[in-house]
């Protein structure tokens, strides 16, 4: 999913996904996803805490994160190498999830076949279904990356660092991508009336 209106196979409507702007909704999503499969919860946690694209998350194997200080990937979209620090909080989530998993297994293994990752469509369906139960109708796989960006910006107010993390061409692209421009526009119009 991207900031552009996109359609996944099997979808009948077009929609633009958004970041999750309410921390209580993030907690609700965690709860809902834990009720389904733990890997859905873990996918959500990895996405909102790394900002990696779904196309870069799904191919990860246990060996890519076990006892590592960084997740090191070659981005599918850009072909660029990316290193993402695994902080102590994320390490705890990772260690708990992979405790009984073999190194050569995919982190987000499909229930179909042997040692294949889930598809983007499967990831989308799990996230979208949980989102609906939480009252979020504009959630997709790209919402994880956008939520990471939104909350990173809210915490640090450093668009240059976020632009670099996302490999965006300009700060304005980054702000639009994470929905900050829309928030600012909405705030200026909220009490405006002539």
Structure characterization notes:
With 194 residues, the chain is mainly α. The protein has nine helices and two strands; from the N terminus they run αααββαααααα. It has one domain: hpI Integrase, Chain A (Orthogonal Bundle), CATH 1.10.443.10. It has a two-stranded antiparallel sheet with strand order 1-2. A hairpin with a 6-residue loop joins β1 and β2. α1 packs across α5 and α7 packs across α8. The chain is globular, with a radius of gyration of 17 Å.
Q: Give a short account of the largest sheet.
A: 2 strands, antiparallel
Overall number of structural domains: 1
Q: Structural class of the secondary elements?
A: mainly alpha
According to CATH, what is the topology?
hpI Integrase, Chain A
The number of helical elements comes to: 9
**Shape estimate:** globular
Share in helix:
40-55%
Instruction: Kindly provide the name of the CATH class.
Output: Mainly Alpha
Find the count of extended strands (DSSP E, 2+ residues): 2
Can you say what the CATH homologous superfamily is? Answer: Intergrase catalytic core
pLDDT averaged over residues? 91
In summary, what is this structure?
The protein has 194 residues and is mainly alpha-helical. Helices cover 50% and strands 5% of the residues. It contains nine helices and two strands; from the N terminus they run H-H-H-E-E-H-H-H-H-H-H.
């Amino acid at each position: 999913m991207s900031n552009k209106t996109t359609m996944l196979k099997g979808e009948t409507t077009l929609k633009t996904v958004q970041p999750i702007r309410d921390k209580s909704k993030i907690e609700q999503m965690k709860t809902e996803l834990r009720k389904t499969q733990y890997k859905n919860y873990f996918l959500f946690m990895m996405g909102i805490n790394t900002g990696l694209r779904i196309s870069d998350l799904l191919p990860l194997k246990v060996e890519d994160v076990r006892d590592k200080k960084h997740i090191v990937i070659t981005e599918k979209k850009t072909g660029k190498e990316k290193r993402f620090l695994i902080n102590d909080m994320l390490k705890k989530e990772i260690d708990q999830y992979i405790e009984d998993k073999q190194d050569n297994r995919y982190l987000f293994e499909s229930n179909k076949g042997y040692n294949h990752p889930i598809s983007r469509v499967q990831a989308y369906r799990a996230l979208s279904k949980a989102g609906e139960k939480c009252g979020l109708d504009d959630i997709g796989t790209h919402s994880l990356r956008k939520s990471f960006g939104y909350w990173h910006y809210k915490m640090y107010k450093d668009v240059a660092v976020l632009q670099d993390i996302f490999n965006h061409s300009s700060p304005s692209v980054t702000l639009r991508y994470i929905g900050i421009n829309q928030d600012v526009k909405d705030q200026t119009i909220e009490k405006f009336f002539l």
